[in-house]
């Protein structure tokens, strides 16, 4: 099984979350390919040759999709993701009113283009602590079980 992950990170929290997820998936003998959205991967290049796709994001400003992935996010609207299994997770800070709102926006953008959320979204407070690491590992396990069952 192969899973592709794309992420954007400003403080390193989302990148750390992706690393934890990647380690958990690799421990299940999953082939993982990771992309930093800042490297400019196109939607049509990302959504190919994998069994599932993970999008990881942080929330910027007042609940906005951050600049580092906004072009990718916008391009999803024009791409057919019908029945493609997608999982979305992200980091945020509960001191803001719109905690992890960009996670919701990204999930909505994917489903509006036809993607199927393979697992419920996951929201992490800042950098992953022990409880968050466990939740990320469970997220990865649920994703692989769901994809394998299809």
From TrEMBL:
The keyword Cytoplasm does not apply. The keyword Transport applies. It comes from the Bacteria. Its cofactor is FMN. Low-potential electron donor to a number of redox enzymes. Keywords: Electron transport, Flavoprotein, FMN, Transport. It holds the Pfam family Flavodoxin_1. The lineage of its organism: Bacteria, Bacillati, Bacillota, Bacilli, Lactobacillales. Gene3D superfamilies: 3.40.50.360. This is Flavodoxin. GO terms for molecular function: FMN binding; oxidoreductase activity, acting on NAD(P)H. Belongs to the flavodoxin family.
């Amino acid at each position: 099984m192969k899973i592709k992950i794309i992420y954007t990170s400003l403080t390193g929290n989302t990148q750390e979350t992706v690393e934890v997820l990647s380690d958990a998936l690799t421990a299940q003998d999953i082939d993982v390919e990771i992309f930093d959205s800042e490297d400019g991967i196109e939607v049509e290049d990302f959504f190919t040759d994998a069994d599932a796709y993970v999008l990881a994001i942080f929330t910027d400003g007042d609940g906005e999709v951050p600049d580092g992935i906004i072009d990718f996010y916008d391009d999803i609207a024009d791409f057919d993701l019908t029945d493609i299994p997608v999982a979305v997770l992200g980091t945020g800070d509960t001191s803001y009113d719109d905690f992890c709102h960009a996670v919701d926006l990204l999930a909505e953008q994917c489903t509006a283009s036809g993607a199927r959320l393979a697992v419920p979204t996951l929201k992490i407070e800042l950098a992953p602590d022990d409880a968050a690491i466990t939740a990320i590992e469970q997220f990865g396990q649920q994703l692989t079980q769901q994809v394998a069952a299809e």
